[in-house]
Amino acid sequence: MRLHQLVIGRHEPELVVGRASHVWASAADTVAAKIYGPHLADLARRWCLAYSAQETTGGAASHVRPTEISCREHRQAHELDLVVTATVPFGNDRIAAIGEAKVTADLVGISQLERLEHVRGLLPAAMTTSLVKIILFARAGFTGDLLTTAIRRPDVELVDLGRLYNGE
Q1: Spatial CA neighbour of 155 closest among 124, 133, 123
Q2: Which helix (H) or strand (E) holds 117?
Q3: Which residues contact 79 (CB under 8 A, 6 or more apart)?
Q4: What angle is formed at CA 67 by the lines to CA 133 and CA 37, rounded to 5 degrees?
Q5: N or C: which end of the chain has fewer CB within 10 A?
Q6: In what helix (H) or strand (E) does residue 157 lie, and over which residues does it extend?
Q7: Which residues contact 131 (CB under 8 A, 6 or more apart)?
C-alpha cells in the first residue's frame, strides 16, 4: 500500500511508458525513508521485546516504544526508534535501553553512537536503570571504528541483519 501511494500512483504514466528504472532511481531514498525505515524500526522493537537476551537490552523488556526527547541545547526534539523499559521489582518501570534503526546503504558510524549518548544524557535519572544501554540496528552494518568501540563498551550493542534474524 505504501509503495503504491509513494511511488506507483505518483509515477504511473512514467511506469506505463517503460521508465521504471528512472522512477525507481528517483524514488529510492523515499522508499528507504518511508517504507524500509519504519519496517526496520518495528522489527527492532519486536526483537528487543520478544527475542533479545536481557544482557542485550539491559533487563527484561516489558515495553518497547518509539519516542521523542526534548533538547534545550539543540532547541528540538530528538527522535528515538526504540526505548526499552524494564519492570523493576517493587518499583516503577525504568528505561533500560535506547536505540536507533538505520536503513541507509552506508555503514553506521561513531556519529550515531555520539548522538545517542547525547540523548541518553537527557533522560531523567529517576526513570532510568543504572546503565542505560545503547542499541544500534543497521541494514548495511557498522564502520570499523564503531565496531572497535562497541567491543570495549558494555553499554553498546550493535545489531546487524544477521544478528537480528539469527541471534540474541
Answers
A1: 133
A2: helix 110-122
A3: 66, 67, 68
A4: 85
A5: N
A6: strand 156-160
A7: 58, 154, 155
- As a whole number of angstroms, the distance between CA 164 and CA 168 comes to 7
The H or E element containing residue 128 is strand 128-138
Q: What's the Cα-to-Cα distance from 72 to each of 27, 76, 78, 121, 125, rounded to whole Å?
A: 35, 7, 11, 12, 17
In whole angstroms, give the CA distance from residue 65 to residue 67. Answer: 7
Whole-angstrom distance, CA of residue 63 vs CA of residue 75: 28
Task: Give the per-residue pLDDT at 168.
Answer: 63
Of 58 and 22, which is predicted with more confidence?
58
What is the spatial distance between Cα 157 and Cα 51, in angstroms, rounded to a whole number?
Answer: 14
Which of 22-26, 77-81, 161-165 is least confident? 22-26
- Rounded to whole angstroms, the maximal C-alpha distance in the chain is 65
Q: 3-state SS of the chain: helix, strand, coil percent to 5?
A: 45, 30, 25
Q: What is the pLDDT of residue 111?
A: 97
Residue with cell 546487524: 160
The one-letter amino acid code at 40 reads L
